[in-house]
């Protein structure tokens, strides 16, 4: 009997990519392939790429080399956002055999069986992004602790710095019924937490935000989706991965505040605390709306964790503009920042804008906000010292340790107890250590 072919995966980028890699993995499994670790020898390597990173090309090359060091005769397939944006460039990377675009990646099995390891550049199967006009559902399943569930794809927003619409196409969504069915499947697998993912999940149902209280004409909106998911038995926790502030409506905030399953944790991209930059970025809100959203969340859920995306060094951002952003964020009651240094993206309006900020200045601003983020996070953690909160336990990267997050996204770490993994138990939060982790005393959680 022939040994089944093996396949290994490597994912770059966001939670959405992880959900799609996992679903592509199940396609291979259903076709009789065995999945192996990327560091082991495999017959086929699939690399799911991201276009957000500054070093997409370099990272892709490094991973291809790593794969071929393990298995020189393996076939290498590259998919994802970078594959849609620059397919010919990837095809020229030595060792790449196949490049699949956004509309082709879920048809991967149609192509891989006919691959050969012939010398020369890779074969490209990447049509125009407008061909990516259907929704393919996906969810991740790995460590049985949490699953990333894809509910939406693509984006109709035209932010001047972003290539995602070029890489993933127009906004499109799953149906409420299909998402609920996938949530039930995830629950049956023993997963305790679902994270809802997409490019612009608040745009679920496809359309625009509520304008002057009038709902757009669509079968269901994001609020309808989360109300139905809240009824799914067997899932203890649901998180919203990231939602635009103009789509994080008061109705959504108030529903989460009253839900037992949706966690008190929002991640809302701000990008700039300066209305001048927000206008140039073509964002669909002003900083005043962002501040209103944060205030409403904290009014209803004082314990809620709020994460913020921010871009520094956007064209035209003066020192005073940046300091205005710094002051605005410093005064916001938020919990942590994800800070991105602006980098030029081909075929975006921002790449052609004047008044380019020198790279050394961009890096300095990134460092300032990164330090502010650490202060914000420590302050948020210290505000919860002495409380007892539920923690979902999972393996930590450090040997002999386990970690976990509270309902409101405070990370704890403690000595490993195998029997507690994938359990949700109350833990007393004792102190914040020098590394910024919350410590708990042994014996302070249920089950010990």
Gross geometry: globular
Question: Helical percent range?
Answer: 25-40%
CATH superfamily of the largest domain: tm_1862 like domain
Please give the CATH architecture of the largest domain. Answer: Alpha-Beta Horseshoe
Number of strands: 20
Number of domains: 3
Cα-to-Cα separation, first versus last residue? 49 Å
Top CATH class of the largest domain: Alpha Beta
Total number of helices: 13
The SS-based structural class is alpha/beta
- Main β-sheet description: 6 strands, parallel
Strand sequence of the main sheet, in spatial order?
Answer: 2-1-3-4-5-6
The overall average pLDDT, rounded, is: 89
* Low-pLDDT residue intervals, each spanning 5 or more residues: 207-212
